[in-house]
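EI: anyone free to look at a 111-residue chain?
SC: sure, send it
EI:
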Amino acid sequence: EYQPMKALRERSSDQDCILIEAFTDDPLPATGSGAVYMIGGGDTRDMEAMKPYYAEVPPISARFGVRPIGAGMNFDQLDGSWPHKSFVGLHFPSEDVFRKFWFGPEYAPYK
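SC: here you go
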């Protein structure tokens, strides 16, 4: 099951992702225990083929406490170059939760 979904996603879209740590009121250096945000940009070439991904991944991410902070194709590029037609922003309660989700067995078939 892993390879077909991964191959389907790779044929149907391109994406780049970054992970950033949220600011806190803590004056100590970041410890990795605070919230993090994943920002991704993508180009979906085949929306029909991606429907299973879009239907199945949100319930998985919700079990990890992931909250969407924004997504879509309607945005204003203010500066620089943004090579993608859409974006997604996700809030994770912590970097540890992000790593359990991103590298864990539940999301593995979709990466």
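EI: The chain has a mean pLDDT of 79.
SC: 👍
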